């Protein structure tokens, strides 16, 4: 959430940033500033009434001690009762203004970084690595390979739950489990502390990281208990640090977790969602960092390099792109996507998003730190996939196939205990 003080000082910058996102409700900025001014006036009146009440209370106390002018006590008490009623009215008004102000602030996304482009159908490709090559002329897509080698079954997922779910089996299940462990091991070696977390969150946790109310309709809701299934491990791991004041010596905090993720993906149909391309439930290994403001972009580059090295170790052709304004997540100031190339589908598949949310998310989380001078400031938060499993599996199967087998990358063999599937 943006701070009203920041909006007031940087109105032009914010409007330009929101235009980058194609944000249509620019009128909200003026409405927020007007409400903030009304809130300040109401708070000032409230404080003055409270001050008068305190003075009357002290005066009554002095009269009672000295036994002088006892006749004034009745008048002072009546005045105190009147002020108390006025204070209650102002308090109700103040709460009403604050509630409306917060609801409008909740609709404003984070302001894009200056590197983010306004609007372009062409992705901003930062770099590309790896050879786009397959050993056979007409490679099969992963859903056909799955049938051929009995690796996963979407029909069973549909039978058990519905479309958008799948069942891994045999070496397909072992491959997924091996990738999860490999990713976690790589993250831990890079000094990320592992967490095992709940897959269910309350509304407060979803609000703190920016998914609620922005992505509320894309989340699975458990109505009876007012809980949500997590769409990403970022939510529970960031909420471990909600309402915390850290010291600058504790930063940066680096954490990793493996979770199942649940997303409704409403309106997703056709070839783009076939097989493992888009699922309602999928596995993902997440990394996050919590940093000081002056080191968050250094940490972002560190996260990008980390994911890059994992992809290189899997021998997958990949590229890094910077998202344009309209494609940014609600809380993100800047996001880089890693995409791997699918030989059979002849297209790029997103497997990781790395985002710097600056202090937007930490403002909702009330996540702060005490700097070296003793001042308390908002932290910066970053999150990234390292990595999302379904499309990694799809690319590994398609890119490593031969006529009658699928080769396994060498780094995974100690985990799978087999070097090929046939």
What does this entry look like structurally?
The protein is an alpha+beta fold and 422 residues long. It has 2 domains: 4-105, Serine-tRNA synthetase, tRNA binding domain (Helix Hairpins), CATH 1.10.287; 124-421, Bira Bifunctional Protein, Domain 2 (BirA Bifunctional Protein, domain 2, 2-Layer Sandwich), CATH 3.30.930. It has 13 helices and 18 strands. It has helices spanning 4-9, 11-20, 27-66, 72-105, 142-149, 154-160, 170-189, 203-209, 234-239, 296-313, 360-365, 389-399, 413-416; strands spanning 124-129, 152-153, 167-168, 193-195, 200-202, 221-222, 227-229, 245-247, 253-262, 281-291, 318-322, 334-342, 347-356, 368-370, 376-378, 380-388, 406-407, 420-421. It has an 8-stranded mixed β-sheet with strand order 1-11-12-13-16-10-9-4. A 3-stranded antiparallel β-sheet has the order 5-7-6. A hairpin with a 4-residue loop joins strand 6 and strand 7 (227-229). Helix 3 (27-66) runs antiparallel to helix 4. The model has no long low-confidence stretch (mean pLDDT 93).
